[in-house]
Amino acid sequence: MINPSGEPDGYIVVGRIGRPHGVRGEVRFKILTDFPERLVAGKQVFVGEDREPRTINGLRGGGEAVILALSGVADRTEAGLLRSNFVYVRLSEVPDLPEGEFYTHQLIGLEVRLESGESLGRITEILYTGANDVLVVIDEGGAEKLIPAIDDVLLSIDLDANQVQVRLLPGM
Question: Residue 1: which pLDDT band, with cuts at 50, 70 and 90?
Answer without folding.
Answer: very low
